[in-house]
Amino acid sequence: MLNLRQMEVLRAIMSQGGVTAAAKMLNVSQPSVSEVLRHAEQRLGFPLFHRANGRLRPTKAAQQLSIGINRVFEEVVSVNQLAQELRQQQRNVLRIGGVSALAMALGPTLVAEFLKVSPHASLRLSVMKRAEMAQDLATGALDVGLTFLAEEYPCLEAVEVACRPLQCVVPVGHALDRPGLVTLRDVAGFPLIGYSPHLTTSQLIRHAFTEAALPYRPFCEVEQVLQAWSLVQSGAGICLIEPFSSLGGFFPGAKALPLDHPARVPLQMLVLRSARRSGLLEGFIAHARLLLQSNPPCL
Questions:
Q1: Taking the CA atoms of the chain, what radius of gyration do you get in angstroms?
Q2: Would you state the torsion angle of the CA atoms of residues 269, 270, 274, 279, taken in this order, to the nearest 10 degrees?
Q3: Which CATH code of 3.40.50.670, 3.90.1150.10, 3.40.190.10, 3.40.50.620 fits the domain covering 167-262?
Q4: Where is the HTH lysR-type domain (predicted)?
Q5: Which fold has domain 4-87?
Q6: What is the pLDDT of residue 180?
Q7: What string of DSSP letters covers 56-103?
Q8: In the CATH scheme, what architecture does the domain 92-162+266-293 have?
């Protein structure tokens, strides 16, 4: 039926409203566009446009076809994007994704430290949602994803690089800003900033309070740990965070303190299970593990 070139011409005519404008858009001559359209209609056996008052108006059949044609070209764009990603991969580019504050706080540190030992490597760091990151890893558009308490995916492997306890973020000078560890009972005595119930961090914190037989009553729930830090710095309350999203450098009026609680949070790097890992990827994972194991929890 229609080949890709004919679909391209039909799409251009539909979007531009005429042969002349379509030819200009495609950077070809008007007669060549008319010829492609004529052959397309011959192959289909029905007209695609009504010709009236010097303009082409798409038939109902053409409008129906355009829906499928647009989907085809969306796939073409996706294929080209993947080809570009693969070309970059061949050029020694490591594509890194990270959830929320991990990509904002820990991610840049890991990248900067890795470049000290691999100065010729090229890295790209993106902030992503968990589902988006898993999808990009599965399709090969991403090499590694920074996350914690990762969900299980059949095609992905979660490589643990560190494991640490939760932290409590308080305003500088707060009653809990003192030597020693903060307990969950201490936390329960102050206004608490929580997270939306569907978030992994929220589920972990709720479980910790339940296990300790303590009431969990956040006065405010947020979507991002960045919001929680901002509220703490403003003096609104305190919050608990997973231990790898310390944003103290952005919020000098707030401080992350270690929490005395048995729960440990693993920092994981998601990779494609079946893929052979490049030397660049293996080096990044190994260096991150070494860096996190040899540095204090504030890193």
A1: 27
A2: -40
A3: 3.40.190.10
A4: 2-59
A5: Arc Repressor Mutant, subunit A (1.10.10)
A6: 86
A7: EEE-HHHHHHHHHHHHHHHHHHHHHHHHHHHHHHHTTEEEEEEEHHII
A8: 3-Layer(aba) Sandwich (3.40)
Q: Give the DSSP H/E element, type plus range, for residue 244.
A: none
Give residue 289's pLDDT.
93
pLDDT at 296: 55
Q: Indicate yes or no: pTM above 0.70.
A: no
- Sign of the dihedral defined by the CA atoms of residues 270, 275, 276, 281, in that order: negative
pLDDT tens sequence across 130-179: 999 999 999 889 999 999 988 888 899 999 999 999 999 999 999 999 98
Give strand pairing partners of 204: none
- Position 83 scores a pLDDT of 67
Which residue is it, tokens 């306890």? 165
pLDDT of residue 190: 97
